[in-house]
Amino acid sequence: MVKTLIVPLPPAQRIEVMHSAEVAMARRVARQLAEAVGIDPRSCDEVALVASELASNLVKHAGGGSLLLVPLSIPPRTGLQIEAIDNGAGIPNIHLAMTDGYSTSGSLGYGLGTVNRLMDEFEIIPRNEHGIHIVCRKWVGGHSPSIRPCPFEVGIATRPKLGFDQNGDDFVVKHWLGHTLVGVIDGLGHGELAHLASVAARNYVESHYDLPLDALFRGAGIACRGTRGCVMALAQFDWEREKITFGSIGNIDARVIGNSTPVNLIVRRGIVGLNTPEAHISEHAWRSEYMLVLYSDGVSTRWNWQDFRQLIGKTATQIARDMLHALAKPTDDATILIVKKTPR
Ligand SMILES: [Mn+2]
Fold it and tell me: Rounded to an integer, what distance in angstroms lies between the CA atom of residue 331 and that of residue 321?
């Protein structure tokens, strides 16, 4: 019989961060908790640094917020999760950085590059109205050697219809062990009601990200009842098996660049939240030289990758940004999401 030694974990701590004094406290508490869960001394230094980066971000860019330090025990692993939630007061800065493009690797402002590099898992959850929510984790012993780091980067550029504050488009990016889920969501029409519809779908998908895609479409359909409804495309990557699973309801366009034989991603007509037809879910081989482009109908479909070839060595964020700049229609919310191999 295998005996499991259960070490009681210290309780989670929430630190309200308004001033630099709390930054120092965040650093100290993070180090103590990292030590308490058994993280090695060098990594404890890194965790402390990450906590102080995130806390000083809250002070400098967001007018304050809270840092949540949560010891984790998900057998057989233990670790520490750090969450930074801004209070929304400083949105203009962060909102700009987010809508102007955001990448899950490299070229992140606000010290987030450091956070991404030092932690085992890192995720930015944009909140259109309430700033952003950052979640990162450090595990005892780091990544298990069987788990490869994500070989892809995701870049997004999005903006509302010209003259509108609220964006009716939204997106999802979730990384977990060996998998990445990305999605583009377009709430019908534009403005606040479109925004409410796409946020309802996004919230459902973000909180159920590891379900099969057909279940995600069904669940989002229920979550969007009572809203205008939205269209949505989801792509789930399995890096180990080098596969992509794709499903789409409504007119989010999807293209795979860099393949000699076309990868046919099937889009089903319909509206998530109104009729919500069964999505056609298909699985395809995914090669590292491929690039996925998902985009809402606020982006012109009249483009050819040949016209953007000069972007080939750029980051996913830069590609998304440049393509949005060239192709977005002023009359609608517009979003482009790119998944490609991380440049070496
Ligand atoms: Mn649209």
Answer: 18
**Sheet of 102-103, strand order:** 102-103, 152-159, 334-341, 291-295, 253-257
- How far does the centroid of ligand 1 lie from the alpha carbon of residue 51, in Å? 38
Pinpoint the residues of the chain covered by CATH 3.30.565.10: 13-139
Superfamily of domain 13-139: Histidine kinase-like ATPase, C-terminal domain (3.30.565.10)
CATH of domain 152-341: 3.60.40.10
Segments in the chain below pLDDT 70: 1-7, 75, 88-111, 113, 125-131, 143-150, 343-344
* Every domain range in the chain assigned CATH 3.60.40.10: 152-341
The Cα 341–Cα 314 span in angstroms is 11
Determine the distance separating the centroid of ligand 1 and the alpha carbon of 130, expressed in angstroms.
23
- Determine the distance separating the centroid of ligand 1 and the alpha carbon of 114, expressed in angstroms: 35
C-alpha of residue 124 to centroid of ligand 1, in Å:
24
The model's pTM: 0.64
